[in-house]
Prior knowledge:
The structure holds 2 protein chains of 2 kinds.
Chain A: H1 2-28, E1 31-32, H2 33-42, H3 52-61, E2 65-70, E3 78-83, H4 85-109
Antiparallel strand pairs in A: 1-3, 2-3
Helix pairs in contact in A: 1-4
Chain B: E1 4-9, E2 12-17, H1 18-35, H2 41-60, H3 69-79, H4 87-103, H5 122-130, H6 134-146, H7 150-161, H8 168-175, H9 181-187
Amino acid sequence: MTDINTDNVKSQMRKGVLEYCILSILNNNDAYASSLIEELKNAKMIVVEGTLYPLLTRQKNQGLLSYRWEESPQGPPRKYYSITDKGKELLAEMDSAWKELVQTIDLIRNNKL
Amino acid sequence: MKKVVNVGIGGRTFVIDEDAYQKLDQYLVRFREKTGLGFETGDIMDDLEQRIAELFTEALGSRGDVVNITIVNKIISQLGMPDGGTMDENFTSAGAASAEANTQPLAKKLFRDPDNKIIGGVCSGFALYLNLDVTLMRIIFILTLFMGGIGFWAYIIFWIIAPAAYTAAQKCEMRGIPVTAENLRKFSTIK
């Protein structure tokens, strides 16, 4: 029972910062959906790939990221995602929110509040 | 010997075993249901199919073989569901939940419906209670007016004794849906 709960808490935490992660990765360099997935999986941020697609579409519709079609060596062209200016603005806000959160948690954990 | 199917996924064609095809088809249907974003689903499914095509190509290598159930199962567990679950656990829990919801509808309460009223909202309240169309309910009511005026007195009495559903919680009870935060938001007047 505790295992299920800890897993659940962990996955909720990851979910909360997943959008932040996507924007951060795209801020470093443009990426195919498959390489995004690769990176997030390596970082253990996602377990199954299906979670990513609804997020990407939502962020695209919110104007945070855009994509262009790029030829690929094998098979048909693929979507190549990049971050927009609006996405960069949000990312900057997320960055400071994240720093704040880390600090706050640090303070709480060390009983300094 | 097995029957095979030709499918086009993500702009590529694959030869796929029939059982594998059915499994994949089921998976896509469930994924679509789980996504639940309406008009955006098309985009998401396109992306997903692209990914499936990529994974198929990877799995087959250059052999140009037939996609079999092992490959499909592996890919399905790799892709999972949009909420992070797996296909089967989602199916059983969703299936069980919807079966429960179907067998045990919540008892509706009779309210007057002030959002959809002509006189006092009695007809619209009854229509929701009896699962009838409001217009049909009103026609029935008007007919009863001509049958000795019973309908008239019944209307007055219900107008007096049946409470009107003003709060979001009452509106949920009136429709017989559970009073959850999500349902409350539907009827909340504060946007």
